[in-house]
Amino acid sequence: MTQPAVRLEHVTKRFAGHTAVNDLNLEVYPGGIFGLLGPNGAGKSTSIRMMMNILTPDEGTITLFGVPGTGRELAHRVGYLPEERGLYKKMKVLDHLIFFGEIRNLSRADARKRATAWLERLGLNDWTMRKVEDLSKGMQQKVQFIGALIHEPELVILDEPFSGLDPVNAQVMKDVVVEIARSGRTVLFSTHQMEQAEKMCDRVAIIARGEKVLDGLLSEIKASSGKRNVALAFHRDAANAHPVLADRKLVVRVDDYGASAEAELAPGAASDDLLRALVASGAGISRFEVVEPSLQSIFIARVGAEAARPLAMEDAHA
Amino acid sequence: MRKVFAVIRREFVERVRTRAFVISTILGPVFMGVLIFLPALLAGRSTTARNIIVVDAATGEFGNRVVAALSDTRFGNKGGAQPRFHIERIVALDRAKAVTDSLTTLIGRSRGPQGGPDGFLVLTDSALATGQIDYFGSNVGSIADMSALEGTLRPVVQTERLMREHVDTSVVRRATAKIDLNTSKVTEGKLTGESGTSSFILAYVMTFILYISLLLYGIQVMSSVLEEKTSRIMEILSSSLTPFELMLGKVIGVGSVGLFQLSIWAGASLYLTANLVPILKVFGQSPDSAANISIPAISPALLAVFLGFFLLGFFLYAALYAAVGSMCSTQQDTQQAQQPVMIGIVSGFLCMFPVLNDPNGPLARTLSLIPFVAPFVTPLRYSIAPLPPSQLLLSIASTLAGVIIIVWIASRIYRVGILAYGKRPTIKELWGWIRTA
Question: Considering the entire predicted model, what is its pTM?
Fold first, then answer.
């Protein structure tokens, strides 16, 4: 078995008053895209900062590539995009990227060549000699992104890489991330956007309140969740369906989006029964499909049952 | 090492490119040039001769001698320069009161081709006896005019008094011959060729440059650390470099900007002094006025001592400023937090005055062992008085030891501070930062 690119063993980090990460075990194997998921304040950034040796764990050990050495000593093999983005505002874009390359042990000439190639690829070649402060926010984020990747690291750690990006830029970044993974390198990114993670990740770990809730291959997680979900969409009179969806003999949990919903079938209930009941209710159904549970529904089921919005049973029966 | 060098290069290049650097580099020599040339320009400046009437109510040759002496007074102390006074003599004898009354109405009013009288001097026998000589004029506020008058009158009055006591003229001449003190500095039994004035100016300029540079570049180190913190670029930096490498790179980078600027200034002042006479011509001054400019000559040994202590002082204070920048989260925070550091620099500068008075006294000897002020005190002592090599070495050793300890402490604070946001730490918390492994 190959050595994991990142291995956390019994890692605990406490800050004044609270425990940010508690006895966390995590293994990220080389290749593919690993999603570190969790609600805000779950300890995602703290874990990543410890991987990068910006913070040191109070307990436990962190190993990168299975070799001894801190994240800082291995900085030339790791690309890191912090959650809070920062650049030197007065520096020229190209100079800035060369600097980022140099502090990752690239030679100056090499750094210049790669920076130029990257800027071209992401459509920033007209901006190379401009100051960072002249760039739009989206462009600055691209520069940040290049900065994390310029030394062609074998492990790329991205903390919330897609937050605050417009759809066009998000698409560009996603393409880059997918390509890195396809070239056999490892990507670890954190997010609280489940849709994004669901589309991109092979493996995920969900953490909440500093503790791991589950991890593994996304497909296995979905298969083993043992749930049968039905995706629903309504084109009229969605309210008529509410009493049906609130019937606990048919449906255990509903994730209701108004015009659409994801319902988890109750044990013993057949999907036909639900369909029959819904048709009888008079709601206009435009979609009825038995699906694998979405990551979102698994996430909410495991992390924040209280965060989901179940229809109140009492109201429904009344 | 490549990483540290990248940080040094970034600090240097980005700073030297700024408009602020270019402006301060140009304005520095201009400011210094003004400091050096201004006395010369001012001395040559008021070349308008004063019209002075001598009201001669004294007996004998006293009045004539005064007129002759005043007419001989020149601007500057070289022959051939412009006369300082245009003198007219009115013999008043017993009518002195009436003459002065009517002259008073003329002062500063009538406008002839040479202008009206600026003032009048009243010479009487009693004035000669008491030494209380009256001058009435519109220019009594001019210190230069009054001291020239007084300086000219004093020997004439002394001569006149001696003559009236029937002392032989030749004896009088010899007795009242002018005295000039020619100062020459001796260091370790050798003549240095520096005069007292120029070595004082040199010491002053050096101390001042050190003071300004430490403040200026120290604050630059501080605000650049703060910028990296607030822009969160620190996360990327500290995931690639150790805090000590970061701090070292920053301090060396900013320090080399300082040295670069200093060497530009040194080059410029060498050029100025080498081409003093042509430059004065540009300003429309005669080459003679170069004599009013004291050019500090700096020996290589003094330069080495100065640069050595400049570097020691810079490392000490820049490291402290870096630590201050790292423990703050906003610009406002730094205002307060930097005060202890600033007090160190200011007190170093203020040490100049007691040390100038007694360069080898016990106070000066003690001060040159304290790392916070030694970078100011020791080069100063070295420049104005012979400094025993043992004391120089002791001062270097204790300052170096101090710098190492301070840099170590500062890097401990820096290490924790760069990633700590929010409230500024208390002294107790700082102590905790220093102690944590």
Answer: 0.72
